[in-house]
Write a structure and sequence with these properties.
Layout (H helix, E strand, L loop, with lengths): L2 E6 L6 H12 L3 E7 L1 H6 L9 H11 L4 E5 L4 H9 L3 E5 L14 E5 L7 H10 L1
Parallel strand pairs: 1-2, 1-4, 2-3, 4-5
Bound molecules: [cytidine-5'-phosphate] glycerylphosphoric acid ester.
């Protein structure tokens, strides 16, 4: 069985996230989605996330695309997860191109083209205008 893993905040889940998850799922047989904890997001400078971890997990569940959802809580967890779950493929959007090449030591790393024209930041900005 080919296990695929991908990570994200998935704030205000949108078409860009869903398209990423669909393509991640299509790379293998079993998709694990790592959702960042509120603390981990704060520690990596994402300070204006609108939805709580629970709401963001609910959003991913509703897509029906994740076979398993885990929480990403610390720097370095990706290596632990890849080993713990026997992951064959790590994938993420092309906005991260090159950044996760260090994981190639542990599994195949695939950067999928990011969907243009939509982002959580833009949706948060729209929200502020209402
Ligand atoms: N994404 C996309 N197209 C968009 C927006 C996002 O393909 N228009 C992808 C991102 O590239 C990422 C996933 O959707 O693979 C989740 O995006 P975010 O919620 O912004 O999460 P991110 O901050 O990219 O976290 O450990 C966390 C990971 O490093 C990724």
């Amino acid at each position: 069985m080919i296990k695929v893993i991908t990570y994200g905040t998935y704030d205000l889940l949108h078409e860009g996230h869903i398209r990423l998850l669909e393509r991640a799922k299509a790379l293998g047989d079993y998709l694990i989605v790592g959702v960042t904890s509120d603390d981990f997001d704060r520690s990596r400078g994402k300070i204006n996330v609108k939805q709580s971890l629970t709401e963001r997990i609910e959003g991913i569940k509703k897509t029906g695309l994740a076979d398993e959802i885990i929480v990403e809580e610390y720097e370095g967890q990706k290596i632990d997860d890849i080993q713990k779950y026997g992951v064959s493929i790590f994938t993420v959007g092309s906005d991260w191109e090159g950044y996760f090449d260090y994981l190639k030591e542990y599994c195949t790393v695939i950067y999928l083209p990011r969907t243009t024209g939509i982002s959580s930041s833009e949706l948060r900005a729209e929200d502020r205008k209402l």
